Protein 1
Amino acid sequence: MLVWFRFGLGLVPLVGSNDESWCQGLDGLASRTAAYYQQGARFAKWRTVVSIPNGPSALAVQEAGWGLARYAAISQDSGLVPIVEPEILLDGEHNIDRTYEVAEKVWSEVFFYLTQNNVMFEGILLKPSMVTPGAESKDRATPEKVASYTLKLLRNRIPPAVPGIMFLSGGQSELEATLNLNAMNQGPNPWHVSFSYARALQNTCLKTWGGREENVKAAQETLLTRAKANSLAQLGKYTGEGESEDAKEGMFVKGYTY
């Protein structure tokens, strides 16, 4: 069983930036990671975000890379496998080329600081966002185009020593997230390309349940259907047949935080 804890203590304003955020929580992290390891945790997670409409500023990109690297180094020192999560937010009207440009800078910064902090690449998991247009862009992209841009970025910026890539859904619809993952697994690549979705696994399930006891079985079946779809997608065998209208519904929320 995979046991992990989220160690970032939340996003707060980054002073001196373009109204951007940084993830706090490095203070006291070593004692927390050590304590959770003793309680059975073997994985840790730290999410930081970069906003394209707000720049992103060089300061925000640097802070994202440095924070993730320090967290990863401290986690490995405590025996945990750090899940490194640099998220390029979907907010904005930009096209896919602009997302690629920003993601290239962010991923470069992250791996530069991982190296500076002597993080063992073989002992991390990467959980990035896919390279997609902004949620409000008029230029939409097919799953094949998203896969092409995302895999190109992986090959250009991610060392093959990293054992696994788990993509986040970031506000895509359940169907989009699954189709894009499936497209990325249509050919060989140096990594195991998988998923670590929240909203893109839970949305239809929660709607089906609605907090009512009589809907529990139907909600469980919905969750299993969604999990099976993504399991097939990581093998490149997903067809998209029989998807519900709820699965096609976009989940982007402007300025979404958690």
Protein 2
Amino acid sequence: MTVHLTTDSPVGPLRLRSDGEHLTGVFFTEHRHAPDDLGEPVDAALAPPVLRETARQLEEYFAGDRTDFDLPTDAPGTDFQQRVWARLRAIPYGRTWSYGELARALGSPGASRAVGLANGRNPLSIVVPCHRVVGADGSITGYGGGVERKQVLLDLERSRTAPTLPV
């Protein structure tokens, strides 16, 4: 049975979706590619443990106490989308990669556009950090939850990352 829990965050309400065992989605209220059916809404006290743990880890993330997530996830997608989403997890906290850098990291240097489309379909916002992908010139480009939220997430991470000197 698919259920969802709505939790507050500094970027607005987040709808956390689960199949009972796995986190299957993290969606903003105005999410471009959110599914039409998020499942039955549940109260936090009755939510599956994975949703309560997701809410806790997100709270830690927004407090600056967490830089990555340790959650059982299951997001349906094509093989290419799965490869893109797995590679997104390699982008360090507080850093950004361009779509071209991500495509090169996947071994598909000519696939920037396909990478962008797969990135935009990531159903696990924040947890799988698609917000860390920017335009080739560093510009803040599309985001399923809106570019304003993307900027807030990037600013949050940058404010908690120690500056490094160029090598």
